[in-house]
Amino acid sequence: MDNGLTRRELLATGLAVGAVVTLPVGALASASVRGARTMEPKLVTVPQAIPEKVYTTERVGISRKTHDEHLKLWQGYANKTNEIRRALAELDTDPAKANQIYSAIRALKVDLTFAYEGYINHNVYFDTIGGQGGPATGPIADLIQEAYGSFDKWAVDFKATGIAGRGWAFLAYDHEEQRVFNYIGDAQNTFPIWNHTVVLALDVYEHAYYLDFQTARARYIDAYLQVIDWDAVNARLRAALR
Ligand SMILES: [Fe+2]
User: Fold this and answer.
1) Domains in the chain, please, with CATH?
2) How far is the CA of 61 from the centre of ligand 1 (A)?
3) What is the pLDDT of residue 39?
4) What distance in angstroms lies between residue 66's CA and the mean position of ligand 1's atoms?
């Protein structure tokens, strides 16, 4: 921040909140604000190649070819995220042009959730595979034990969640209740739960397994459970709890 305060410090003092609620509404729609660029677009990136550790999933039958094809989809979510962010940065945000039935700002902001969450889901997916799999280790193992009673019970629930999902199964940490839970996802942006951190994301769209397992999704999930990188999951958990 320009004044030397961190964002956390600003929030703690209430300055940030106060600044927002005390702005007169008219000021937001003033000619000077309307003519200004909303914000600089922050762009996201995807690796040029799949991380080497991910290819170790070949030992359980999730092939290099599957990952290489999957990378193109991951890059697609990043590209569209950036395209939408650039468009939003250039958008005329005159409130008179906003509309809940159709408007440019609505279309862009709704589709941003699909693009950006697709990007995030795949970030987590590719970060947390290519490990030793098997029973969880570290702090996430303790949370799984507390919530599900045993790793095996968690794994059965996670597998069932993955079979029941149309696109995703997530293991997420709930900051409200300080516990983990297996959530279901259909599209990239369906069923979000606030105040959670996703620490493990299982892609169950057919592009993630059809080349290797055809329609046998359950066998793909069995293979996936053998290649989870629990160190990466714990790193995400620790970052969320800092
Ligand atoms: Fe995918």
Assistant:
1) 61-242 (3.55.40.20)
2) 17
3) 82
4) 10
